[in-house]
Amino acid sequence: xxxxxxxxxxxxxxxxxxxxxxxxxxxxxxxxxxxxxxxxxxxxxxxxxxxxxxxxxxxxxxxxxxxxxxxxxxxxxxxxxxxxxxxxxxxxxxxxxxxxxxxxxxxxxxxxxxxxxxxxxxxxxxxxxxxxxxxxxxxxxxxxxxxxxxxxxxxxxxxxxxxxxxxxxxxxxxxxxxxxxxxxxxxxxxxxxxxxxxxxxxxxxxxxxxxxxxxxxxxxxxxxxxxxxxxxxxxxxxxxxxxxxxxxxxxxxxxxxxxxxxxxxxxxxxxxxxxxxxxxxxxxxxxxxxxxxxxxxxxxxxxxxxxxxxxxxxxxxxxxxxxxxxxxxxxxxxxxxxxxxxxxxxxxxxxxxxxxxxxx
Length: 360
What we know:
The protein is about 30% helix and about 15% strand. By secondary structure, it is α/β, with parallel strands linked by helices. Residues about 10-15 have low confidence and may be disordered.
């Protein structure tokens, strides 16, 4: 007993004389994406997620590019709390697509081009692009992140940004065979300012195809999307302060979603697009206006801000809109195996066989 007591005293004395052992600081995050280097050549966009296949939309010297700035590097805004996560990107002068493919056993052949919002002042690729890659992967849907140019960097949203959206559709369709994508199952989903581009792509593709039918690497490849997702949108070509274009007879089906009175301005823009399509009987146009919903970025009472994309939205029904999209997508046949004609295709063909009514 006495020996045990003496041993305890000795151990305590040694501990008191030895320096305190501290836990080493954690290592720095690994694999953090960063912009590519600047050179005299057009900037080479880098993948924002592992495994991304990145292709610029236009060849060097293209008249679509501002060659005086095409060499400038993109600027990333990184999350301070989630290392390696890119929240947004600005200074995009060499627009691109970043392709993420699914495994062969899952592949439906469908591809959705994701166009983030940000008020044309930034591209919120974190919540409105990157987060959707694993979500759609589960359903066998290939994803494409579009990095389009921005008004803050001197570009016209209704011209330059819309051209980027339309060119992205052509680019994916041109590489459809290499990527095992069904060329009849390529669509575009936009959020807020990005939804402006998706809505425009749905009705302006024919004019874009005609303007780029000669001396163009993608000549003969149509920019028509097979479906569009218009998510809490900015103003479409059918907004009251714009001159509505004629609606092509083969306009694609659309899924439209927005908050209601809590996001009234964007809800009105959503309704304007939906009404334009409904007025002429376009098939497979679906809209969800949620009673409880705010626009991403809106300030909340606790000092935080409303988030968008796939976020849960405090367990409200608006936080499940993506599953309503999947319901619609499945119903139209886009989740079948590649090469199988979709219900969307059949319904468009049936609509085209009918006499054109007022508005065409």
